[in-house]
Specification:
The chain is α+β, with helices and mostly antiparallel strands. The protein folds into two domains: 234 residues, Beta-galactosidase, Chain A, domain 5 (Distorted Sandwich); 269 residues, Glycosyltransferase (Alpha/alpha barrel). The strands form seven sheets. The chain has a nine-stranded antiparallel β-sheet with strand order 1-15-16-17-20-13-12-9-8, with helices on one face.
């Protein structure tokens, strides 16, 4: 399909923004809280979240929508049959890329005909995400002994909300909305963001609807007894004024469904398979393993693990590294690719807006309007103190599992840069501990896990002064240096390896400053004054990483580990 605008840019008709700055852009009714049974489909950075009927309802709700590259391209999708919503019989998803929803038309009185009983017109709805395209297929089957006339209506809207808006960040100004374009069998929503990028939601329908208006379409169907009619809806998100060649290629539901199943099958053949004596346990484990196929995001030939579905379906540092470490038994290639992608975006400059320094591993990478317009610093953003040592830990662990010398040689330059970041930029006050202090006005206040604004607090509820040195991060740095000492020696850098070992042992001695004698355990962090008990929120913390390296643990660390 040709996704070029069917009219010239100067013919677009500007319309007022549907949402004023004073009006909340996202509608979240109290009765429409997040549902555990919502359906979610995903392919890379493209995902769909609907209610159990397959609808994007309520319109503009923060829990639903069709998203691509951090932008919501559909904020409303609703099926109505004879003016009423269909009734759900069952719904399920298969491998996180296709769903099947069984519906029936509600009871209705047909004009100049007979009463249409419930459960006599069956509707099978199949939804598929393939690449950046969303398919919605409807099959209507008449179980009545008489012919029936159905008025089938689909309602649409596209608010082009940035994922940060969906997550609750308010904007005072939006871009320019244009009147939807009705062109043949297509309905096109158009928006130009504050980043000057044109975004379109192209909705293609087959067969062509009987009626079309700016926010919906309608078909008048005649179903003979025992016969079925099919309606196909294909939604294309388009970013930029010149669609890519791949987005113009011919696509259809059966071909793309077959392609998705083949992709999953090929992946499944190359990963570890698990079996036990308990069938339910096996099913849970295999489902969890299959989820890692859905979590992969393509980046220039590699597939990094996303942080989560749906709202964190993007490249992360901490989350991607930990998930890769934990799935080495499943597929070491996930870790290899994650390391390569993160090395590709390793920090190169000192940038306050992105909290970036040379050698630092990113925290999160976004490509939506708010990021591209400079409203948010996630292009990428580097406000994570633990991503860099975790990168080193994962590299050494991949080598332990695979003995992949080529990978280590490839990534050694990135590893040296990461080690240099720890010493040159991680230790802000040169006291031997790694700390963080936000520089970006739109960055994260807390840059270790948990990274919510109130994760580190004093007992009285006030926030500690920065820089903050979390004990967890000191553990990561200790582990990273201890591991890299051995790895570098194996690859010929004996001098740097011995230096790293001594630095790791020095870190272990520093941990005694976290001990709180009145509570008999370690503080979660030290604040900018290097105080714990009265200045940071307390948390029981067993330094379990020392269990692998008892030679680096002080007596209190060993006691805490023994107690844990």
């Amino acid at each position: 399909m040709n996704l070029q605008l069917p009219i010239s840019l100067h013919e677009l008709e500007e319309i007022p923004a549907p949402y004023s700055p004073e009006q909340p852009r996202l509608v979240v009714p109290q009765e429409a809280s997040r549902k555990a049974d919502d359906l979610t489909l995903i392919d890379g950075k493209t995902f769909l979240s609907t209610n159990v009927t397959g609808d994007i309802m309520p319109p503009g709700s923060a829990d639903v929508g069709f998203f691509c590259h951090d932008t919501r391209f559909l904020s409303h999708l609703e099926l109505r049959v004879n003016g009423r919503r269909a009734i759900v019989l069952s719904s399920s998803t298969d491998k996180t890329f296709v769903s099947q929803i069984e519906l029936t038309a509600a009871r209705a009185t047909l004009r100049e005909s007979f009463d249409l009983p419930e459960n006599t017109v069956h509707i099978r709805r199949q939804q598929l995400i393939s690449g950046e395209v969303f398919f919605d297929r409807f099959t209507f089957l008449n179980f009545n002994q008489n012919a029936v006339s159905l008025s089938v209506e689909l309602l649409f809207d596209a608010d082009f909300a940035d994922v940060f808006e969906v997550r609750g960040i308010k904007r005072k100004v939006h871009g320019q909305f244009y009147r939807p374009i009705q062109h043949g069998n297509c309905l096109i929503f158009v928006y130009r963001g504050l980043d000057s990028t044109l975004r379109q939601t192209v909705i293609e329908m087959s067969p062509s609807p009987t009626h079309m208006h700016d926010k919906g379409t309608q078909w008048e169907l005649q179903l003979e007894p025992g016969k079925q009619v099919q309606i196909d809806v294909t939604v294309h998100p388009v970013i930029g004024e010149t669609p890519t060649a791949s987005s113009r290629s011919t696509i259809d539901f059966p071909t793309c469904l077959r392609d998705r199943r083949e992709r999953y099958s090929n992946w499944e053949k190359n990963v570890t398979h698990f079996a036990s004596s308990h069938g339910i346990f096996d099913a849970v484990l295999n489902t969890a393993a299959g989820d890692f196929h859905a979590l992969q995001i393509a980046d220039k030939g590699e597939g990094i693990i996303a942080a989560g579905i749906p709202w964190f379906a993007t490249t992360f540092g901490r989350d991607s590294l930990i998930a890769s470490y934990q799935t080495l038994l499943l597929d070491p290639q996930l870790a290899r690719d994650t390391l390569r992608v993160l090395a590709r975006y390793q920090g190169t400059e000192y940038n306050d807006w992105r909290d970036e320094e040379p050698g630092k591993i990113l925290h999160e990478y976004r490509q939506g309007e708010m990021t591209c317009a400079g409203e948010m610093p996630f292009s990428p953003y580097y406000g994570s103190i633990d991503s860099t040592p975790l990168f080193l830990i994962l590299l050494t662990e991949v080598y332990n599992w695979t003995a992949d010398q080529d990978l280590v040689r490839e990534l050694l330059p990135a590893a040296y840069k990461a080690l240099d970041w720890i010493d040159s930029y991680g230790d802000l006050d040169k006291d031997g501990l790694v700390e963080y202090s936000r520089r970006s006005p739109k960055g994260l206040a807390n840059q270790s896990w948990k990274d919510s604004w109130d994760a580190n607090m004093r007992p009285d509820g006030s926030l500690p002064v920065t820089p903050i040195a979390p004990i967890e991060v000191q553990g990561y740095v200790y582990d990273a240096k201890f591991r890299m000492a051995s790895l570098l020696k194996s690859f010929g850098d004996v001098e740097r390896g011995e230096k790293l070992k001594q630095e790791a042992l020095a870190i272990s001695a520093k941990l005694e400053s976290y001990w709180m004698s009145h509570a008999s355990f370690y503080a979660i962090a030290l604040d900018g004054k290097k105080k714990s008990g009265g200045d940071c929120k307390l948390q029981s913390w067993p330094p379990s990483f020392f269990a692998r390296h008892p030679e680096g643990a002080g007596p209190r660390c060993r006691a805490a580990n023994d107690a844990a």
